[in-house]
Every structure is written in structure tokens, then in C-alpha cells.
């Protein structure tokens, strides 16, 4: 479980760093947008690693509760990031990187759904309602943001597979 915890700590830190970039709002430059794309690739890699590590464990109820609490923080941060992306959509479009945001959002949404599925499978019955509610929030946040960027184009080839691990 230590490896899972480390991956979740890494994930939380990377989302926090991404949020600092998004928080620049209309002061965000083209380089920031590319860096955000790289951070997104790093987040996707970290989620995949967490899935692999978590899939091979049988967490106790206490471990599951600790992970659920950390996932609440990560979902809160992710919702903040998605809201920030939507709020700054016109700026991303002006920078001609709306398609990059859309592409990375799709990749992150897909792997976060996989992680949620694994966590729901492993959650003890007592924590399932909370875990399901958290998954519903995660899915709703991505659905709203994905819809906002549905027709966005530009920058899709930027930051391809480049990982800004920290």
C-alpha cells in the first residue's frame, strides 16, 4: 500500500502544480499551455501507475478510508482545475491550444475512470456509497469540461507524450 500512497501523493502534487498554471488565467502564455500539457501527460502516467499498484493489493478498511480521503482531495483539486480550464477556454482558444486541452482532458478522464473503477471494486461495503459519490462528482466534472471544449482545435500535436514529471 505504500507504493499506492506514494503514487497518490505524486498525483496530488502534480494536480496542484497544474492548478497553479491554470490559475494564471489570461496571463497564461503559450509556454504555460504547453507545460500544462506536459503536466497532464505526467498526471496520466501517475494515474496508470497507481492503477497498476492498487490493482495488486487487498487494502484493509483503514487503508481504504485513508485512500478515499486522499482521493476526495484529489477530486476537489481536479474539479478546481476543470472549472479553471472552462473559465479560461477563450484564452486557450486565443493561444490556439484548445485542442491540446481537449485531448489531454480526454486522456485524463479515461484513466481517472479506470482508477475509480479499481477503487470502487476494492472499497469495503461501508465505504462504497462515499466512493460512488466521489466517482459521480469526478465524472460530472469531466463531462462538463469536455462538453465545453467539444469543438476546440489547435495544439493537439504539442506536448505529445512529453512528460513533465517532477
From TrEMBL:
UniProt-listed InterPro entries: Cell_wall_mannoprotein_1
Entry's Gene Ontology cellular component terms: extracellular region
Gene3D superfamilies: 1.20.1280.140
Region (Disordered): 145-166
Pfam family of the protein (one): HsbA
The protein, known as: Uncharacterized protein
Amino acid at each position: 500500500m505504500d507504493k499506492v500512497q506514494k503514487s497518490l501523493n505524486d498525483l496530488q502534487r502534480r494536480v496542484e502544480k497544474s492548478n497553479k498554471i491554470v490559475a494564471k488565467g489570461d496571463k497564461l502564455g503559450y509556454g504555460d499551455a504547453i507545460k500544462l500539457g506536459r503536466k497532464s501527460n505526467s498526471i496520466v502516467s501517475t494515474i496508470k501507475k497507481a492503477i497498476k499498484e492498487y490493482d495488486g493489493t487487498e487494502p484493509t478498511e483503514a487503508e481504504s478510508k485513508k485512500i478515499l480521503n486522499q482521493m476526495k482531495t484529489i477530486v476537489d483539486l481536479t474539479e478546481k482545475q476543470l472549472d479553471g480550464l472552462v473559465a479560461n477556454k477563450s484564452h486557450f482558444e486565443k493561444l490556439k491550444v484548445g485542442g491540446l486541452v481537449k485531448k489531454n482532458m480526454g486522456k485524463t478522464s479515461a484513466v481517472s475512470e479506470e482508477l475509480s473503477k479499481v477503487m470502487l471494486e476494492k472499497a469495503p461495503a461501508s465505504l462504497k456509497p462515499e466512493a460512488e459519490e466521489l466517482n459521480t462528482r469526478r465524472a460530472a466534472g469531466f463531462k462538463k469540461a469536455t462538453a465545453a471544449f467539444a469543438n476546440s482545435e489547435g495544439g493537439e500535436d504539442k506536448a505529445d507524450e512529453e512528460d513533465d514529471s517532477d
